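Fold in tokens:
===
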Amino acid sequence: MNHISEYLATENALQRTRIIRAAKFPKKVEIAAYAQIRKSLQAALSKPEFDRSGLELLADRLSTKARRETGYARDEALRCERAVRAFIETVQSTALSKLQISPAPSPLRLHQSGVRLKVTMDAAVSSETGGTVNSGGIVLLYAFSADRGPVKDRLNAMTGLLFWALEGGQMEPLPRLCLAIDLAGGEVLRASSSHIRFRQHVAESCHEIAARWETIDPPDDYDGPDWR
């Protein structure tokens, strides 16, 4: 979902080519980014008080690790520590504690214009009103780089895709329950209830991606598995 949300958030042709290339040929370093903390943050979403004490211990351990390491390992430990502390600060200052949050289900799938989209949430959300249970979900955005790009558009795309993917499930989704958390910005954004133009944009973008997919070659520094 990160790749398609980036794609939807930009009209720059060179940037769109880069995003398709990154989706088709993922690098090992990028796959490993934040791997040390993703499961811990996902689990914390559905724990009492968002597991604040446990995450503070994790952040302290990462800080200690950064002092011992050098190079990429040091930088990644610092990035992870920053993300954990930002998570603690963000979730504690929002109304998320009022929601019914549970561990995330398996990834959801959307098929548009020849493109298969995998929509992965970090936690599931539900809410009961008058005997009716509605669904939603939470996705975390790890974007701490100096060039964060059009983050607001990416968050809107993430929540819009999540709401769309949940349609047709056992519970009716609600836009206000489909949330994206920007850890770097300390912001929680909800899906829009107006989605016709967004879904047209997704369909058009997927059509463009499908038409270009076979023409995209790997980058010069590609370090993934054999693609031929």
Summary: The first strand starts at residue 100 and ends at 103. The chain is about 45% helix and 20% strand. Residues 3-32+94-213 form one domain. Residues 145 and 197 are 30 Å apart (CA to CA).
